[in-house]
Amino acid sequence: MSTTFGAPPYACEYLVIAGGGGGGWDFGGGGGAGGYLASSISLFGGVYAVTVGGGGTGATTGQDGGDGTNSVFSTVTTVGGGGGGHEAGDGRDGGSGGGASGPGSGGSETSGQGNSGGVGGSGTGVTSGGGGGGASTAGGTGGNPGGAGGAGSSSSITGSSVARAGGGGGGADSRAAGGGTGGAGGAGGGGDGMDTGSAAQVGTTNTGGGGGGGNWDSGNGANGGSGVVIFTLPAQALATFSAGVTQTSAIVGPSTVYTVTATSTTDETVTIS
């Protein structure tokens, strides 16, 4: 079926990112980035589902980081990022996988949406968290510093290039010389892993970035960042949102770009006419 710009079926570009995973506790792995999908579809007038996934909760005592939640636009669903592992445990699976704690294994990614989490380090001074996977690259291996979060991907759907969906950095081994260094968060909103004396950093809101992992000796992980749904329609088309949708719009060239930053329920919609 051919699509004529400005007439239904409407040509629609989209970027759908799920919520990032939370960082793990106690030499915890970094949270994996939320699943990332960017492409185009044709939409007729009608009612379509829209959901922005929330970030996973940063871990406290004895916990993995929480998984992020899914984002939805029309028939497109991205999977929440996997939480980081804790106390030598594996990272959790997700859109991108969470980083492992110590000698555990990194979490697996969802095919086409991200990358795997990194392996943690093992041994005095280097027992740290692996980095959470990002949209473009896998999470780094832990040591001193902790594993770096995987890099996110860049999109120019809003008119300028913005990186999103970076993985969280792994937590440090506080027994290392100088107290150890947490892994750097991945470009695109990933939070840094915890250093001795400084908290793990949260994933950036509306990027799907993973949260940083906690350090050795009971450090807490940080929350993952919420996701986002961005889509374009010809300026002649009209999009009307249900009451629980928070969104903005802007004209970019011949298109209107809609950026949905929050939804209050998983039953929210956009009506296109």
Descriptive key words:
5-stranded antiparallel sheet; mainly beta; 273 residues; disordered N terminus; single chain
**Helical segment tally?**
0
Percent of residues in beta strands: 15-25%
Main structural class: mainly beta
Overall geometry comes to elongated
Main pleated sheet = 5 strands, antiparallel
How many beta-strand elements?
Answer: 12
The low-pLDDT segments are 1-5
Instruction: State the assembly state of the protein chains.
Output: single chain
Provide a concise account of the structure shown:
The chain is built from no helices and twelve strands.
Describe it.
By secondary structure, this protein is mainly beta. It has no helices and 12 strands. It has strands at residues 10-17, 36-43, 46-51, 71-73, 76-78, 153-155, 162-164, 228-234, 239-241, 245-252, 255-263, 269-272. It has a 5-stranded antiparallel sheet with strand order 2-1-8-11-10, with no helix packed on it. A 5-stranded antiparallel sheet has the order 5-4-3-12-9, with no helix packed on it. A two-stranded antiparallel ribbon has the order 6-7. A hairpin with a 2-residue loop joins strand 10 and strand 11 (255-263).
